[in-house]
Amino acid sequence: MRVLLVGSGGREHALAWKLAQSPLLEKLWIAPGNPGTADLGENLEIAVSDLDSLVSFARDHADLVVVGPEAPLVAGLVDRLAEVGVKAFGPRAQAAEIEGSKAFCKELLMRYRVPTAAYRVFSELNPAVSYLEGGARYPLVVKASGLAAGKGVVICKDNQQARQAVKAMIEDGVHGEAGRTVLIEEFLQGPEASAFCLTDGRTFLTMETAQDHKTLYEGHRGPNTGGMGAISPNPLVSQRSLEAIEKQVLLQTVHGLNHEGRRFHGVLYAGLKLTPAGPKVLEYNARFGDPECQALLPRLKSDLLPILMACAEGKLDQMEAPEWDLRPSVCVVLASNGYPGKYETGLAIEGLDEIKTGPDLQVFHAGTAMAGEQLVTWGGRVLAVTALGESLGEARRLAYEAVDQIHFEGKTIRRDIGAAGVEAMEAMR
Ligand code: AMP
Ligand code: GLY
């Protein structure tokens, strides 16, 4: 099979790494890819936003297109590919709206009784402010409805903060059009979990769970990022919560999308809070999580390619449930100093060659580039190191051992990826 993979982050390097192991793969292109994916296939100089070039390349060369990031999905890449008869792993624009519009997502969840936080939607400042002043309960959450690269969420502890957040989004347009419509949401208590299911809109296969570490600093402090690390499985998801996630959340959502004529092909990623009243949806994404994907895929024993193809072709019912390595994984992100704000790029990265990678230890590239022969930093999240271990503690030790061998100026990491997971497992014993 000839595959075009779209994207250039750590998630796409992990996808490329897994796809490259498939005996069914004849050729892999990555558009635009990164220096990590260049070792696994052929990088193409096509930006993820250049839908015309992606479509025409795929029409001439590819049997399957695998779409990593959300923006091309929301922009209708998969619809365009369907028009020229190319199969794709990833939802059409109408189904991707579950991520592209938080307002649509919430309405869908309400219609199909999927547990989620209570909320209101506002597109004008005055009604929003009256609502905030008239009996809203704090803390509460103010969110940009559209895509804001994970940065459109403000947790507000009082009225003043909430007013500021709403004004910044609706009136000052800090997130552009994405923030002109805002959601004001009930604050949900409890730890977070990420759940993933592969689906062709009729059948779904639940993947293993993960836990993201969103804040920049250790212990839930600092600004939210795209994710500074992840572990899989999420030790806080009990068998009982997993059943609830499957039946009340994923199944209902796949059914709901289908019922509304927005059949979803691809991976549905539910961001959840494990509240005392059971799992509730924080948000949906229409793609793999980054860095959750880098923590998940090294645990997947089955061949990924036929599963992705089955999703694209609507034949997932013919696939067996994927097999997983039972050992836990830990993925640690190495970021640039300043991320998620402004940061410098072009800084030399050293130490990668000395790391012995293998099935249990991988270094995934995200924001890297080649400057001549030298690997340099090129983005906010630079690399992600994933290790598998007999225990979560062991996986942590192995991951950090490799992380400590990598050097670049301003290297920013969290030391506590998986630490809360280890504590939780000890408490459960
Ligand atoms: P989102 O982009 O909607 O996943 O939100 C980003 C982060 O904000 C989540 O991972 C949570 O940590 C936090 N968050 C969002 N919505 C809520 C909520 N209703 N209650 C508590 N925390 C939330
Ligand atoms: N790690 C969070 C995300 O991919 O949205």
Short synopsis of the structure:
By secondary structure, this protein is α+β, with helices and mostly antiparallel strands.
Task: Describe it.
- The protein has four domains: 2-92, Rossmann fold, CATH 3.40.50; 118-186, Dna Ligase, domain 1 (2-Layer Sandwich); 192-318, ATP-grasp fold, B domain (D-amino Acid Aminotransferase, Chain A, domain 1), CATH 3.30.470.20; 329-428, Alpha-Beta Complex (Glycinamide Ribonucleotide Synthetase, Chain A, domain 4), CATH 3.90.600.10.
- β20 and β21 form a beta hairpin.
- It starts with a strand and ends with a helix.
- The chain is globular.
- The longest helix is centred in the middle third of the chain and has 21 residues, at 239-259.
- The chain has 13 helices and 22 strands.
- It has helices at residues 10-19, 51-61, 70-74, 77-83, 93-100, 102-111, 125-133, 159-170, 239-259, 292-296, 304-313, 392-403, 419-428; strands at 2-7, 27-32, 42-43, 64-67, 87-89, 119-122, 140-144, 153-156, 182-186, 192-199, 204-206, 211-212, 215-217, 221-224, 229-232, 266-275, 278-285, 329-335, 361-365, 368-371, 374-377, 381-388.
- The protein is of the alpha+beta class.
- The strands form six sheets. A five-stranded parallel sheet has the order 3-2-1-4-5, sandwiched between helices. The chain has a five-stranded antiparallel sheet with strand order 12-15-18-22-19. A four-stranded antiparallel sheet has the order 6-9-7-8, sandwiched between helices.
- α5 (93-100) packs across α6.
- Glycine (GLY) is lined by residues 150, 212, 226-227, 285, 289-290, 292.
